[in-house]
Amino acid sequence: xxxxxxxxxxxxxxxxxxxxxxxxxxxxxxxxxxxxxxxxxxxxxxxxxxxxxxxxxxxxxxxxxxxxxxxxxxxxxxxxxxxxxxxxxxxxxxxxxxxxxxxxxxxxxxxxxxxxxxxxxxxxxxxxxxxxxxxxxxxxxxxxxxxxxxxxxxxxxxxxxxxx
Length: 164
Hints:
Elements: H1 5-29, H2 34-51, H3 57-76, H4 82-91, H5 100-122, H6 145-162
Helix pairs in contact: 1-2, 1-6, 2-4, 3-4, 4-6, 5-6
Organism: Roseovarius spongiae
Protein name: Prepilin type IV endopeptidase peptidase domain-containing protein
InterPro entries: Prepilin_IV_endopep_pep
């Protein structure tokens, strides 16, 4: 992995609770709170100064801008929700550019697992564990925050274990 283990270890304890919050919120109300996105971005702004080499820091912030622009276009085209686009942008600085292919694999696996688990729970007695969740009744819509938050959390955990 291109992310350093030290960087991932710095980020992980601050980022993981936000990832869990985003997943839970998207399952519960089908929205990723703006305050969660701003918290994630703020964590990077502060912790990134300690966790990354100073030369990498501004380039990683540029990841946020690039992914935000792509997300806005994808949202305008109806491909993803606005919260998903904003969360992806706030998560982008945490990812080393050399790990982009690995991140895509983690996201793909998370999408398959998350979608399957959500649909199994939706159509079985497991649904009674959280009957008020809006994600059960939104038809074909899927709470992507579950997979986006999981992807960032898994990426940083793997980085902490196997990073350079």
